[in-house]
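Ticket #293: bound-state structure for zinc ion.
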Amino acid sequence: MSGLRLMAVHAHPDDESSKGAGTMSRYAAEGNDVLVVTLTGGERGDILNPAMDTPGIKDRINEVRREEMAEAARILGVEQTWLGFVDSGLPEGDPLPPLPEGCFALVPLEESTEALVKVIREFRPHVMLTYDENGGYPHPDHIRCHQVSMAAFEAAGDSAKFPDAGPAWAPSKIYYIHGFIRRRLELFKEEYDRRGEPFPMQEWLDRWRRPEQGDIMARVTTQIRCGDYFPQRDDALRAHATQIDPNGTFFVVPMDLQQKIWPTEEFELAKTRVRTAIPETDLFAGITTDGTQ
Ligand SMILES: [Zn+2]
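RESOLUTION: The complex was predicted; output attached.
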């Protein structure tokens, strides 16, 4: 299906390239409009690529991150917009320090929700993507991204809410993006074992093998085939050069092996206003452009 609109809401620049990027790139290539909404400027992200940790880069980090984001969007074939909130940073220490004044996670929910509702009413997405209630990763901006997305999904279609934010539009579905699939790594490991080679992501696997952690696959409702778009995903991620070490673990499993063993990305249908059958293989399943079902 083409001619539909997909909106992905993300906390920081680079999140769009590590979560659901192959899926977005595929839907864009198939003739749909895809918009990434980036809630914050990523101002408090550390430089994670040793090669980029230089004074020339550090001094203009905000500008650099905007350039990186533009390049990543170009590679994925998607549009992108900023909501203009300020990165809350990942608090570290014991006890945890208070969040910095004025940061996104401290903005009243009503205020950030209205800002997102405005973009939803302009772009009129059929489907939205966001994070689950745990943020997929315990960063205050990721948790807040979930809260704002869910509140805006509900409010955007209600003309009584935020009347100054444009005419009402109710997106049909909203999904959580599930990136950390343990089974995927286990299958990669089995392939390395077969080849008699050490598995380079063993440390990650061990971290997820703790018995108290369930497998998020139990929550997945929807798998999107997008192996052909993994190269775009990786190139987009590398475009965020200050955030991503090109020699890091993320790129260590060869592309052809990933495409063969696990060519999909995983989503959980969180709310829907249309009828659909689970499991799904298409985010737009059940949606028609003329409003019929
Ligand atoms: Zn993030």
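RESOLUTION NOTES: The mean pLDDT is 93.
TICKET STATUS: resolved
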